[in-house]
């Protein structure tokens, strides 16, 4: 969770003037336009939203290409804080190769109450909310909110960035509940429970109906975008942990059903994630994405971490996402991103929760630390997208031995057995850390690796790559009779990646055309 503090205002282009056509002019224009697109052919990728890749359930397809999503981003209040300027932020993400950002949709407070924009308007005739401003009218819609959410999605689309829109977030303290529209004193209708926990449980029928309607309206407004997916709720496991979990599961499944029902009447269908791995067995199987927070287990919480997510849930054939994690150095971020993507994840979303990058002095994050961290994430994505992603699957079994002391392994191989990839790192977790987790300390001394691998007979090329700058530090080509083989020793610091490809042999040339022939009677 992170709340931005910058107060730079958006400078949006003015809307175009309305133009009036007579029916004959419009018909001719439509006919010419239609003939133009028929002759050129509209790109097929424009007709398909972000989706699970049809040939590999563990990766995504975006605009016709196999894709892994990655980002290192600012806080999530871009939509409901009307003062935040998102265009410079998106420009930096695009420049640095990030193809994802995350935004919460509503109900969370902002620093200045007057900047809080919601799907519902403030009333001017029904008294004041607890913040001294007009109450929200849950029976009406706020056009400015829907203009903003569509403008946000469009700005991201123009830059090739996918947006994860998270509808709800757990309210972590009573003052957050008292500042938002789900408190009964803050809306005209008086809807809402007498505690913050029940705001996200199906116990108040009137509030639930308003929440459903808002979800459906947002889904409808965003249906035309191909660069969108949804998450029902951020961190439900922190909403009074272990209490009335069955009701919270019901709330999640209910909202998923509303999304599906709304999109059943619309042209496009979008992916939907949940962040409730603790109740995976009772959550609907119709969710497309499994979101986990932080790479390793969180002391005192039920968060198991992304390493466990990869190990235990990969076989479910769902998209796995490390949806939030907090790092403060490029090296920490690098270990997390590479670990998760090489290990079989499809989405890495780093969060600058400490505002070390996206602070009040640099809201776009265009600074030395931000540039270094985003580079570490982009390198992981670049490396992955050079692989045979369509056929790549999580697989540690081909590494038969030789893992250095203190190293952690993630690995995969293709279903064709023609490509193998591995990642070794020397990051550890600090005992007793709170939920702000990262790999630390990291052993950055020299390490030696002579990995023993199991390969079929053939000629192979093994390339060791330094993740920090994608420089290949060693390339070895060898012919192997099959079985285990030990690769020559390589020296590295902190982490290293290995890719082994079967060398394709050229087919034999056809025999030369005969010469000197003569006809014999």
CATH topology of the largest domain: TIM Barrel
Distance between the termini: 93 Å
Largest sheet: 8 strands, parallel
What is the count of distinct domains? 2
Please give the radius of gyration in angstroms: 26 Å
Q: Fraction of residues in helices? A: 10-25%
H/I helix tally: 9
CATH class of the largest domain: Alpha Beta
CATH superfamily of the largest domain: Glycosidases
Mean pLDDT: 89
Low-confidence stretches: 1-46
**Strand order in the largest sheet:** 4-11-10-9-8-7-6-5
Beta strands, count: 22
Task: Explain this structure.
Helix 5 (205-221) runs parallel beside helix 6. Strand 9, helix 7 and strand 10 form a beta-alpha-beta unit. An 8-stranded parallel beta sheet has the order 4-11-10-9-8-7-6-5. The protein has a 6-stranded antiparallel beta sheet with strand order 12-14-15-22-18-19, with helices on one face. A 3-stranded antiparallel beta sheet has the order 1-2-3, with no helix packed on it. The termini are far apart. It is α/β, with parallel strands linked by helices and 521 residues long. The chain contains 9 helices and 22 strands. Residues 1-46 have low confidence and may be disordered. It folds into 2 domains: 41-390, Alpha-Beta Barrel (TIM Barrel), CATH 3.20.20; 393-502, Sandwich (Immunoglobulin-like).
